[in-house]
Amino acid sequence: MDDTSDEGPLNLDLEMGLKNGCCIELPFEHQPETLEIQDAVKLLLQGLHEDVNRDGIKKTPFRVAKALREGTRGYKLKVKEYVQSALFPEAGLDEGVGQAGGVGGLVVVRDLDHYSYCESCLLPFHVRCHIGYVPSEQRVLGLSKFSRVADVFAKRLQEPQRLADDICSALQHWVKPSGVAVVLQCSHIHFPSLDLDSSSHDGFVKVLVSSGSGVFEDERSDLWGEFLSFLKFKGVKTQAEWCPSVRSKLLLEEDPEMVSAVVSILRSLGEDPSRKELVATPSRFLKWMMNFQNVNLEMKLNGFNSVNLNGEIREKKLHCELKMPFWSMCEHHLLPFYGVVHVGYYCAEGSNPIANSLVKSIVHFFGFKLQVQERMTRQIAETLSPLVGGDVIVVAEAGHTCMISRGIEKFGSSTATIAVLGQFCNDSSARAAFLDKIHN
Predict the structure, then answer these.
(1) Where is average pLDDT lowest: 12-21, 110-119, 193-202, 279-288?
(2) How far is 259 from 43, CA to CA, in rounded Å?
(3) Are 239 and 205 in contact (CB under 8 A)?
(4) Whole-angstrom distance between the N-terminal and C-terminal Cα of the chain?
(5) Burial 19-35 (b: 16+ CB within 10 A, else e)
(6) Which of 52, 126, 284, 324 is the 20 to 30 A CA-CA neighbour of 223?
(7) 3-state SS class at 396
(8) 3-class DSSP state for residue 273?
(9) What are 55-60's contacts with CB under 8 Å, separation 24+?
(10) Sign of the dihedral defined by the CA atoms of residues 371, 37, 192, 158, in that order
């Protein structure tokens, strides 16, 4: 059978459509942009020494293409289409009577959660958006449209200040209020650290940015103060550099084919790779990815003897290693996940527990790969088991950016996975004792 036969119905539909003079939109999986991104991702996976036909990542190129195109759909969206049909008359006050020359008082819409893709490194970041405005011309905007307008600009390659300015200026232009204020709280995952003792941050760079127009142009005004008084946060420390990739000291010998692949992705998303803010993006994205290439990190197992009590029965004591940070990359979507690992095992009375540095080394080894959290948790437990006499429990807790940066958009969610071996399999009191250590 001809290996192109499965394209017959598609080609026939296209031919009939062209004959009838109509424009047929190709299914998403057949669109040129999708195919180009898939080809680029396959090349990147090969650059990580991965087998692109392995079951776990066979469909990864398509999933990545779908996530990226969904996450940058804002280039094709128009603010006008959302706003024009949602401006409602509110003539309860004569023009000029209300606050700041508007038809009423300040309106505040808080806690609009969005995500955007960082233009510096192509990683997604979380945005919590707060908008205030003073209506004018005796009309107000439907509340749901504030989130719609924010999404138009969030679903593009962005950086926080420009995103705030874009949202503010669009609302000022299309709604024509007395003024608009926008505050964004943005969180960007740190670049992974190969330092086993790295625990000085919570895994995220956080910044606070604002933008104002009309009566909100002066951020020292009383009106700004009133707006900020409604926001339920105590402030976020702004860092000197927003994207961690800009500060990364990782030295990378660039593969021209991998760089070209990222350039191809940018172009397929509708961006101009020569735009000054994007010129270094391919290199920065590869800096992130190459942390997870399929290489061996030293686990320091050499010379370590597994537990051997020579048949002697001793009282065993629960020993715990808690809150060991890790970074990893989801092999299904090539998106980061970050969190902590807790390990518990029984240590015979009078014997020394295994070194903390060894446990951290094992966690790092299995974290710095293309991974799924369930597998990583099991691998850590299986590696530790012979070193501690077989009784081990491992809990991994992590936040996954694939949970915010795709259609599901579940902000604030986290995932816990558990692996148990030996006594912990059947002894619920042993598991409870360890879980109490974690929660307390």
Answers:
(1) 12-21
(2) 10
(3) yes
(4) 64
(5) eeeeeeeeeeeeeebbb
(6) 126
(7) strand
(8) coil
(9) 56/331, 56/332, 56/370, 56/372, 57/331, 57/332, 57/370, 59/332, 60/331, 60/332, 60/333, 60/334
(10) negative
Report the relative pairing of strands 107-118 and 370-371 from DSSP bridges. Answer: unpaired
Q: How many CB atoms lie within 10 A of CB 149?
A: 25
Q: Report residue 118 as tokens.
A: 């960082």
Determine the Cα–Cα distance for residues 254 and 48; give it in Å rounded to an integer. 12
- Let me know: does 183 contact 208? Beta carbons within 8 Å: yes
CA distance 160 to 118: 9
> How far is the C-alpha of 284 from the C-alpha of 288, rounded, in Å?
7
Q: Which segments of 35-169 are extended strands (E)?
A: 87-89, 107-118, 124-134, 139-141, 157-158
Cα radius of gyration (the chain): 27
Q: Which two tokens stand for residue 189?
A: 């995952």
pTM of this structure: 0.81
pLDDT tens-digit series, residues 161-207: 999 999 999 999 999 999 999 999 999 988 776 555 554 446 788 89
